[in-house]
Amino acid sequence: MAKAVESSGELGTTSPRPLFAGLSDISISQDIPVEGEITIPMRSHIREFDSSTLNESVQNTIMRDLKAVGKKFMHVLYPRKSNTLLRDWDLWGPLILCVTLALMLQRSSVDSEQDGGPQFAEVFVIIWFGAVTITVNSKLLGGNISFFQSLCVLGYCILPLTVAMLVCRLVLLAEQGPINFMVRLFVVIVMFAWSIVASTAFLADSQPPNRKALAIYPVFLFYFVISWMILTFTPQ
Amino acid sequence: MAAADELAFHEFEEASNLLAETPDAATIGGSGQLTPQGHVAVTVDSGGSNGAEEEGEESDRTALLQEKPQPGLWTFGYYQTFFDVDTSQVLNRIKGSLLPWPGHNFVRHHLRNRPDLYGPFWICATLAFVLAVTGNLTLVLAQRRDPSIHYSPQFHKVTVASVTIYCYVWLVPLALWGFLRWRKRVRERVGPYTFLETVCVYGYSLFVFIPTVVLWLIPVPWLQWLFGALALALSAASLVFAFWPVVREDTRLVAAVLLSTVVLLHALLATGCKFYFFQPLPLAPLPQATSLPPNLPPPTLRPQVT
Which residues contact A161 (CB under 8 A, 6 or more apart)? Predict the structure, then answer.
């Protein structure tokens, strides 16, 4: 202890000496106890976590995933700038939404093959290839978002349009006419705007500042096409 | 001193001629001294003819731009070089294609040796979807006026539209580029455009059709043909002014045939789209069946009346 103080005193008085030059003079004497335990608390926690997911009931596993998906639905419905969708991305939500939308948009088999609305496969392909194209486009323009994060955000932001599809199907059960059409048009426009606002809130920050419009325009086109498919849906 | 100046001047001229012939050649990497002198040579040389000014400008830009080595074909960075544009640049290029001017070559003044794929790709996608959507809307509006017309979403037209437009913007520039390269030996001074520059010119020239297609919703036939003719004129003018400098040194026959083929293919695309998406209005099968019963009662009513 005394030796260390002496050497630090030397350092204090002689300022033009180079930095750390006095360190070699310090020696740890025997009466300073240096002992303890070095443990990484995280590792034991993760190990505990891993072994417990194998033993837990199926209901727990499913509920955990469903809760994560539900939490992200809430983030889409009330969009504000947050990182949740980007940080813990998953593709369950987009898959559920895409399948629901495609099932509802599917044309009935009574129609002729040529002149009908989209088939299940067409809707599926449009949504997934559209999302992939937009992601590749934003990466090529220099955005710093990963491939699956972008797919996750685009897929989750279809939620307002799926709600619009449900509402349109219910409205179409009533009598057809211009009022019917106006109600559907209003609902689809509002949900389209909601989707754009939600996806822009999540995606805009990851683009370089002078190319934001270039990256957001394809998102606008994508949701416009989906809204058009919803609006022109006619049950036969 | 005078002898040294004469030697320096001849060196610059040869260098700028070499650069005009091969605009892709890298000028940095061995001859580091050539670049600053080349820059000075441009300002001296551009006092001469207009043709030399164009080449001098081109060599100046290529000398300044070819600074880093091109990434390989298999890397992601290679494709990123085609999307290296800002919002203002894209808007500028669109404006340049909408307002063609005889002196302004689209490739030289707007692209400036930096063609991009963003514009052509998304303009084609937008045009394909706008064609399908407005074609569908026309059917909806026609059905409101005349209930005998059968309405259906006609989703397969989206596929047809997108395949047609993308094939046009890729295959026709490929053929044109191949043809121009084949004729390259006839031309002396101006080099041909690269494939991407040709695709760019075609892609941006299709932009004027997007508002035209939306205006085709108005159901007045002569107005539709007027808008179509206007759009075709603007678009074809933009193409012709872009390719004229490359073709004008060729023989007159080849130049005339090439330019008229370009205009003809463009006109074919425009009229094809108009006829496929807007003209035919399908009649409903059911109202034709119900038109038969009204014919039956009058013969049976006659005996009752008399």
Answer: A101, A188, A191, A192, A195, A223, A226, A227, A230
Domain contains B200: yes
A180 touches chain B (CB under 8 A): no
Q: Which of B129, B152, B207, B214 to mutate to test the interface with A (most CBs of A within 10 A)?
A: B152
The span from the CA of B241 to the CA of B234, in Å, is 11
Neighbours of B14 (CB within 10 A): 10
Type of residue at B151: Y
Indicate if the alpha-carbon torsion angle A61, A65, A71, A77 is positive or negative: negative
Q: If we measure between CA atoms, which residue out of B200, B228, B234 comes closest to residue B216?
A: B228
| Residue B255 placed within a domain | yes
Q: Take residue A83 and report the two structure tokens written for it.
A: 């990182």
Domain count, chain B: 1
Contact of A205 with chain B, judged by CB distance below 8 Å, is answered with no
Q: What number is the ipTM of this complex? A: 0.71
The tokens describing B234, both together, are: 């603007």
The CA-atom distances, in angstroms, between A152 and each of A69, A126, A199 are 11, 16, 10
Q: Is residue A22 part of a domain?
A: no
Beta bridge partner(s), residue B283: B149
| Interchain pair A221, B129: CB under 8 A | yes
Could you list the residue range(s) of the whole structural domain that residue B114 is in? 87-278
Model pLDDT for residues B5-57, shown as the tens digit of each residue? 555 555 454 444 454 445 544 444 444 343 444 344 343 444 334 444 444 44
Q: How many CB pairs under 8 A join A and B?
A: 64
